[in-house]
Amino acid sequence: MTAKNGRRWNHNIHYHPEILRAIPDGARRALDVGCGEGMLARELRRTVPHVTGIDLDVPSLDQARGHQDDIDYIVGDFLIHPFEPASFDVVASVATLHHMDAAAGLARMRDLLRPGGVLAVVGLARHTMPGDLPRALAGVAAGTLHRAVKGHWEHPSPTVWPPPVTYPEMRALAAEILPGARYRRHLLLRYSITWHKPGD
């Protein structure tokens, strides 16, 4: 379903600005991990001259390649694809970490980032009950309101549910693997991680 105003909306797209605000000045190369049909990659390309998207889902990448742009789309496993270490100024990912081992994914993103670069992630995690019940109910209510006003765009990529890692576990992983990272929980059932890799 296309959004009612002609613009796409879903819970993931809602938090794209979290990624875009994190782009450092002068960034030249960005990697979109789990790029799907390329919406975030295209948004990154408005600011960053060289953007690469990687995903395992061929039909989604076929859609991405249908757009007229110069983004480099790769079919492959992000964890093992032979990228050069420390070769990106921005490593971004939306709703992808729960498709892989989260610790391995964060470590790989960290290693691909150049000193001074920024890692920006928006992800899904699993609620722990009953403690998370108020947050979960508030998120469902807010999401229902957004859908009523904006419609809902269903992405073409495969889904994984429920997420294997809880919110507290995700916070702990971020603190361990990305010292000093900012971790936030958001109303629409998402978290974000922003990390600036120390410079030389």
UniProtKB/TrEMBL annotation:
Domain (Methyltransferase type): residue spans on this chain: 31-120
Keywords from the UniProt entry: Methyltransferase, S-adenosyl-L-methionine, Transferase
Superkingdom in the source lineage: Bacteria
Gene Ontology terms for molecular function: S-adenosylmethionine-dependent methyltransferase activity
Listed SUPFAM superfamilies: S-adenosyl-L-methionine-dependent methyltransferases
Biological process, per Gene Ontology: methylation
PANTHER family listed in its UniProt record: METHYLTRANSFERASE (PTHR43464), UBIQUINONE BIOSYNTHESIS O-METHYLTRANSFERASE, MITOCHONDRIAL (PTHR43464:SF19)
Name the UniProt record assigns to this protein: Methyltransferase type 11 domain-containing protein
Provenance organism: Acrocarpospora phusangensis
